[in-house]
Amino acid sequence: MPQARGWTAGSGPACGSDRTRRGKANVTESRKRKPSWRFLLLRMALVAAFGLLGTRLWYLQIVEGARYREVAEGNRRRTVPIVPIRGRILDRTGRLLAENVPSFTVMVTADRLPEEPNERARLFDRLCALLRCAATLEVDPGRVALGMKEALYPWLGSRLEPGRGEFVEALWARESPFSVTLHLDVPDASWLRARAAATSGMTYTTSLEQKLRQSAVPLYLPVPLVENVPREVALVLEEHRLDFPGVYVQPEPVRRYPTGALTAHVVGYVGRITAEELAEMNPDPKSGQSLRYLENDRIGKLGAERAFESLLRGELGLQEIQVDASGRPVGAPFWTKEPHPGYDVVLTLDTDLQERATAILEQYIRQAERERPREYRAVTSGVAIVLDVRNGQVLAMVSLPSYDNNLFARGITAEEFRSLLEDPRNPLLNRAIAGSYPPGSTFKVVVASAALQEKVITPKTRIFDGGALLVPNRYDPNLPPQVFPCWLRSGHGWQTVDVAIRNSCNVFFFTVAGGTPEKGYEDGLGVERFVRYAHAFGFAEPTGLGFPGEASGLIPTPEWKERTLGEPWVQGDLYNMAIGQGNILVTPLQLVNAVAAIANGGTLYRPQLLLRVLDRQGAVVRDFQPQAIRQLPVDPDYLAVVRQGMRRVVTESATDYARTHASVAIAGKTGSAEFGPFIKPGVRQAHAWFVGFAPFEKPEIAVAVVVEGGGQGSRIALPAVTDIIEYYFTRERGPASEESHGGTGSAER
Q1: Is the pLDDT of residue 676 over 80?
Q2: How far, CA to CA in Å, does 302 sit from each of 8, 66, 405, 417?
Q3: Pseudo-torsion of CA 734, 739, 744, 749, nearest 10°?
Q4: Cα–Cα distance for residue pair 686/708, rounded to 1 Å
Q5: According to DSSP H, which parts of 225-297 are helical?
Q6: pTM across the whole model
Q7: Quick check: 741 pLDDT over 70?
Q8: Residue 2, preceding bond cis, omega within 30 degrees?
Q9: Can you list the domains of the chain with their CATH numbers?
Q10: Lowest mean pLDDT among 169-183, 207-221, 401-415, 449-463
């Protein structure tokens, strides 16, 4: 039988199957030998990823390793500032006026307080009761349920006004939201807090919680809650510190002012720095300079504390500490740069003289109050200043009433501060530099100096005073003339300049300042020269003492009057200025400084309060020398004529107090500067002025006294100045007599 093509012996289906298996095996082997493209891509991706990772690790560890090690170290280390000790303030004899004393401040770190709200609230209630601080309950009657009011209002009445049913009735009558201030023990606080939490329209918070919420410091930094805590309270907190998590007591120095109200207006006080002050006192962050102040720092606010802040402050120190993950310090510091303490400053002030001048001024304020007419306002305020005419040093600067600057040092309460602000006597005002007064007849010495220098008059020029200067109506000469009277209505007769100063003759100074109608007012100084000389004597500008709040005073000009009052200038404005009235205003320091320049022969000094600076060991860092602002543009011979007139005020006028109560020769000028509304036709209350110097032959000191509303300067201010001068020159031989001397004399202006 023939065989089919392709078949051989031994072949058949079995052999074909074998070849098929071999073919499949070959395909499988081929697939094993040739990986799929997906697998290749995966392998390539893995290689690339590990390559990138390795490259990144190399970059981070090798290239950027140093920087990241520094960052990691920075998370573990922190540089914190150390506040320097503030310098002291002393008077010229070394008597302490401001020092640092230990105190205790209760601090709270927010991130260490209990997290559970009720537990935190109980902590603040206990702390508030211990520290006797206030809490505030705010009530919106429209949202509080009737049942809650029935429980709350009687309860409030029993705590705030026990036994007064009308108080509870007043609460029921309230429809608008109101708040009450409470001082509660822990059970009462817990009861009220629970009711407030369960009722809409009521909130209860302690002052401690309010202060913590207002703080902008990071949670891990401490916030001062209560300053000047009594030592026994601080000890209780320390003993029970486990019961007050997040609360601790920090000892820190605070200011103490040993002389208190006696020197408060000179020394000033310190207080917590405000956000505005922080931005102003610190360097621009872009400058790279170190900070000088921190949040919650204390800074000088007024007086010498403010004026000499840069010397008293010192420089911040630095300390690098280790912190944990939450920012809390752990372990010892890595390094410390000690702070540079502030310098001690020595003032020119003589506290002994300040004390005596204060007592004398108080005495004459009381006398003026006893003697004032009933329709006049009460006499409660005054100023006394003593300057050394040889160098401008301020020996005494009294402003009454005063205040106790220790209130601010220990942390003044809102009630105490409000009481000071609302006191009608304004005890916070330093009247010596910030009080602006019409100078009255004391200003005539400036007018006389200017008139002599400008040759308007000579020392021998005689001007007749018939009792008034008559100025015709410039619009209608047929109308009655305007009358500018002398204080002595019968007139003083013929006057030379020194006699006119002695008599305080108004008509004489009307004439030399503004001229006469008969000569077209061309025979006087005129406005331009008057203003120029007033500025030369230091008026209408701060004296340069450097204290905040110093007033400039005012020397009016036609432009000022038009701009400010919307009125044209008239001749009467200049006449009024000639006798220190009208719109002219000066500060007591400006006036005594001008008279000191007349006394010393013409040198206008910058008033000086800073005598020297000491380091902590008492070594002198710097002595401050007198600074002359300018020489008066007046011939010394003419100033001698003015001084002679001032001497005649004391020796020849009807006011004999200075002659009979002084052991040294005094010269000066009285003033009774009218102010305020007319009490009756032609009568207004007046400030009592006297400004003088001594000894006349070789002047050492100038003294100014003004008693607000005190009346005649010859009766009130002149005796006060005399007593101050007498004490200054005789105190080494024994204290001045305590006997009260009532001034006597005529109605000299």
Answers
A1: yes
A2: 127, 50, 10, 15
A3: 60
A4: 7
A5: 231-239, 264-267, 275-281
A6: 0.80
A7: no
A8: no
A9: 76-95+258-347 (3.90.1310.10), 105-253 (no CATH), 351-749 (3.40.710.10)
A10: 207-221
